[in-house]
From TrEMBL:
BP GO annotations: receptor-mediated virion attachment to host cell
InterPro entries: TPR-like_helical_dom_sf (IPR011990), TPR_rpt (IPR019734), Ycf3 (IPR050498)
GO cellular component annotations of the record: cell outer membrane
Transmembrane segments: none
Keyword Transcription: no
SUPFAM superfamilies found in the cross-reference section: TPR-like
Gene3D superfamilies membership: Tetratricopeptide repeat domain
Species name: Prochlorococcus marinus (strain MIT 9301)
Protein name as catalogued: Uncharacterized protein
Keyword NAD belongs to the record: no
Keywords of the record: Repeat, TPR repeat
Segments annotated as TPR repeats: 37-70
Length: 248
């Protein structure tokens, strides 16, 4: 499934061009060098634009040291951290942005993406909902929230969100609505969602140490048609899961 690309970079540019510089001085006692912090922010932005993300992070970090309320620097560093797969670091930076200003819709949208990458499904859904309420990236926010809802078994919610994404010109969501949701929710989709939920519960129970319950969910998934899609999963089932569950 095609991943929706975060809009960190475009959003940073919009912020830089549209918001007065006074925003950097939200808390005067923490501002050590406002002017230099802005210069480093722009240097970092240039490096980020050329995909030199490690160097960009160094600029953004120094900009933050000189002005702890420079939320543009936190926002931009989150983008670069995301690009080098430092997802936890991006999450931390976006949390800091939203501590400084809880009403930045684009930061909520971006944190929803990061939460999904970290496996925080419900937190991601909440952030997408807040972004949607602020009319941020509606075609992608609705589509992504629909995927997350399908992953937790909320089929009606998934179809509703994909329909909304379709109304906002998301072609992929339109194809999902036509394939899975109209005129009624298809049995194939119902089966896929149930299988996904069974396997998610099996993994959760396994990591909680409840092996018998994990195996019960795994058996339900198999009855529902579950098959491993890649070599690693097939190997795991063959070497670990099937022998373990045979005992139970």
């Amino acid at each position: 499934m095609k991943k929706i690309r975060p809009i960190f970079l475009l959003s940073s540019l919009i912020f830089l061009l549209s918001v007065p510089y006074e925003i950097f001085a939200l808390n005067g006692k923490n501002v050590l060098d406002l002017e230099r912090s802005r210069e480093l922010l722009l240097d970092g932005y240039i490096q980020s634009d050329f995909d030199n993300h490690q160097l960009a992070i160094e600029y953004f970090t120094e900009a933050i040291r000189l002005n702890p309320n420079n939320f543009y620097a936190f926002f931009s560093r989150a983008y670069s951290r995301n690009k080098i797969q430092d997802i936890a670091g991006a999450w931390d930076d976006l949390n800091r942005v939203l501590e400084i200003d809880p009403n930045i819709g684009v930061a909520l949208y971006n944190r929803a993406i990061v939460n999904a990458k970290l496996g925080h499904k419900f937190s991601s859904i909440r952030d997408y909902s807040k972004a949607i309420n602020k009319n941020i990236e509606l075609k992608n926010a609705y589509a992504s929230r629909g995927i997350l809802k399908s992953n937790i078994g909320d089929i009606q919610g998934a179809c509703f969100d994909w329909q909304k994404a379709s109304e906002n010109n998301n072609e992929k969501a339109t194809s999902w609505v036509q394939k899975y949701c109209l005129p009624n929710i298809s049995e194939e989709f119902q089966k896929k969602v149930n299988t996904k939920v069974f396997m998610a519960n099996a993994r959760r129970k396994y990591f909680d140490g409840e092996i018998k319950e994990a195996c019960n969910y795994y058996e339900q998934a198999k009855i529902n048609g579950y098959k491993a899609n890649n070599f690693r999963d097939k190997l795991t089932l063959m070497i670990i899961t099937n022998p373990m569950c045979f005992v139970f």
